Amino acid sequence: ELLVCIAIIAIISAVVLARYKSFNSSILLRDLAYEVALSIREAQVYGVSVRSTAGSFNVAYGMHFTAGTTYTLFADNAQANGRYDAGEAIASYTIGQQNTVVDLCANTTCGLTSLDVLFKRPEPDALFAVNGAVATPSTVSIVVGSGTESNRRAVRVWTTGQLSIE
After folding, report:
1. How far apart are CA 135 and CA 10, in angstroms?
2. What 3-state class would DSSP assign to 1?
């Protein structure tokens, strides 16, 4: 009976240890999706509230995304053109744990090279710049993932300023 109990415990332990890596990477990816959504919410709070940048209180704040391992919080104060330009960065975020931004989508069109999500006083509504040009999609998605296509999460932003993680 003791040998049977040890065998059962060994089998259960082997199954748990084999699934640990995929479980751990799934948790890290979910945390990354929430971190990206929280960063977008931070830009929304900056854009809607009164925050001075270079002496101006009427500045749009946003997040700039490209495929890869970094994304940027910026203030659209250099040219006030509704998109990210060099020199407007406030903070840069680095993605770790072998996760990346794997795709950017506007409505149902994916494969974008860059995506900017902006917020400007007094409205909490989101403004978008797709591939460097101001655009009016109803929704955009930032897809984060690692390795396989089954291990991906999307952060969706609507023009109303609503965020969701899928």
Report:
1. 57
2. coil
